[in-house]
Amino acid sequence: MAKDLKEIKDIEEIKELGWDELLPGAALFSFREPVEDVAEIPMEERPYAPTNSHEWQVGDWRVEKPVYNRDYCIDCQFCWVFCPDMSILSRDKKMIGVVYEHCKGCGICVEVCPTNPKSLLMFPEHMDNQEALAMWPKKEEKK
Amino acid sequence: MVKKIKNLKEFSLSNDRFEGANLMCPGCAHNIIVREVLNATDDPIIVATATGCLEVCTAVYPKTSWDVSWLHIGFENAAVAAATISAAYEVMKKKGKLPPATQKMVDEGREPKIVAFAGDGGTYDIGFQSLSGAFERGHNFMYVCLDNEVYANTGGQRSSSTPIGASTTTSPAGSVSYGEKMMKKSMVEIMADHGAPYVAQVSPSKWKDLVKKVQKGFEVNGPVYINAQSACTTEWKHAPEDTIEVSDLGVDSCVWPLYEIINERDEHGIIYSTKLNITYRPKKKIPVEEYLAAQPRFRHLFKPENRHIIDLWQKAVDARWEYLQKREEAGV
Amino acid sequence: MAKKYELNEVEVWDGNMAAAHALRQADIDIVAAYPITPSTPIVQNYSKFLADGYVDGEFIMVESEHSAMSGCVAASAAGVRAATATSSQGFALMVEVLYQASGMRLPIVLTVVNRALAAPLNVNGDHSDMYLGRDAGWINLCSYNPQEAYDLTLMAFRIGEDLNVRLPVMVHQDGFICSHTAQNVRPLQDEEAREFVGEFKPVNSMLDVANPVTHGVQTEEDWHFEHKARQHNDLMNSMKTINEVFAEFKDRTGREYTPVYTYKMDDADVAIFALGTTVESARIAADQMRQKGIKAGVVSLRVLRPFPFKEVQEVLSNVKAVATLDRSAPGGTFGMLFNEISAALLAGGKKPVVLNYIYGLGGRDTTINMLKEVYEDLDKCAKAGEAVVPLQQFLGLRGPKLSFY
Fold first, then answer.
1. Of B291, B232, B279, nearest in space to B32 by CA
2. Which residue of B lies nearest to C206 if distances are taken between CA atoms?
3. What's the predicted TM-score (pTM) here?
4. What number is the ipTM of this complex?
5. CATH code, domain with B23
6. CATH number belonging to domain C260-404
């Protein structure tokens, strides 16, 4: 009998499924259980199925990562709206931070950030965020 | 039900139904467009997608990046897929056989929105027949073309959306060629001429304009066509972080004018008025050259022997901008 | 609610009308179709049923067969019952989507009125389209006359939609000879037919907004093989359901269907193995041969896919010579039936003489006399214990005799 992919807890376990365990037609599910109104439920509260890419990571694509500095942020949400990867975490109209599991390091958030100095800057992937914050540039004088 | 989105802060309350860890390129505009379209409503959404970047990168077994029901059949049939899902929905509604959760949404005035996404290859070229057929039949759905002016998924071959002078893998620039020879096909007008109630051109960089148009599209009854500029870091060859800037250059140079065409129809579907509205006017119209210079796919045009193509570009863009303004002024 | 269609106990219907009534009675939610000769009347009849209030579902006149099958796939994935009809070039245009329908395990029903494939263009019956689609992963049912076209179309919904099967089903009938020839048909009354077909059971419906589902994924070398294996396994095992549905249909109507059809095979020395309307002609030829003392029989497939391998072995276990009649240009080899029947026999340890006749292309008439000639060839081979005529011959062809091997 086909295993119900919703029941599988471990992503690694999916990779080992034999032909006899697959759901006919290769259908994939977004959630483990019915979700009546997805648009009303923030991501952190959703019962994601292991087959939802939300549960997976692409952070290792990055060479550089965006680091967020709360001190200068005006919560304009430009970074949120233009992030191609749903990786700017924003709740109640406030910017919270970067979802590093899903951020591919494109750098759009930094480019569109309007503050001076910017509230998001790219740093080498291996650098500690605290270290990055400590070396944050000062306000640039308008020429 | 129209979602209230007064400003960006309010828009940021949206709970995305498109998920991260998809396999789209870093900085891809497709994703930004998809987010803006899906977040334009809180009503249920059902998506059909043509073969292309968005399809091959968001549903690679055993992972899906969709929190809404999603279907891919082939390259050339996203329009008929979405149109028939819409028809299936109408039949089940009429028969009173919708699944309970769906029926509950309908009772609350939140009818599912059926959206097709396809690239310019799946729209201007191979999917055009299916698209034309579905629009002629008048199904209630929205078709969004993610227009990156190239077959990006298969390695950057020209499509009938590729603009003149672009170097692609099947119209490469060379010692005796300036690249693509044809002007881009006028898809927006073609779709408006199908009599669709609402047709619009958008850019993800102008998010509010895009969201407003998508919301208008969701409100009308009948097929809606949205042509979305989709800057492609891989094939336009700009840096991933420059996606929004390149998009803005396109809009502010009027290479990618933002406008809508509304075919107002009476209860019998007879069109009694066609209006074209320009929805964004650049404060300062920048030269096309700046838009071209930002994208290495046009780099060869800056050689002396190809400069005439840049002049041609400027002429074509000016003429088109003039045409749109005349139509708007005349109310046709 | 659709109006009840008043039907006589015996109606005079051609194959197209019979198939159209079966589709009407199956209470289909979405028919997406495009007309093509000779299946056009199915689409036209269905349109008329809709116009007269006999159909509840939606009928979408799409702009191509590609869109017709794409529409069926979308509707089926949306969780509703979908069906269509086509022939020949239209079938060829659908081929890409046929594979998607079966790979996505969507129980669509397709009535195929078999017709030749161009070039040269031809509107008449042969089995080129059937052969083109035989590897597409669909269940293939074959009929010989309007009654069977009707019966098998109704049964197709039950078979494909069974939760153990969930595969699309084609029902074949011969262009013109079946599709346009009016014959007596004993239909079920509307309510009986509806009850037999039953309510559509959605699986992973896209319309269920509380359970978002992704259909039509990409699988590469790490997954594709397993999914295709699963699909093949379930298609092979669908024979069980097919037999159950055949049995239930017999209980209701008295009409018996079996995966392999036989006529006078119990003591046959020689047999014609053919598909479609030719079976009916072959029966007459067999009877006439028997009057001459030749023990002739006829074998055919009701179920082309899944191929009834064991049943074929069994039916042919005692014949001395069998002629496989392929009504499709074989394209550089033997006909499909020759290859498949030979393989089944060889695997079963039997080595009767197997001959291959290519016949009836583009609607060329196949007469009783031609079929009797085939039996004469078989009789010669049976008596000699070996092939004494060429293995592949063209039957009813003008010009010098064409044969190979």
1. B232
2. B69
3. 0.97
4. 0.97
5. 3.40.50.970
6. 3.40.50.920
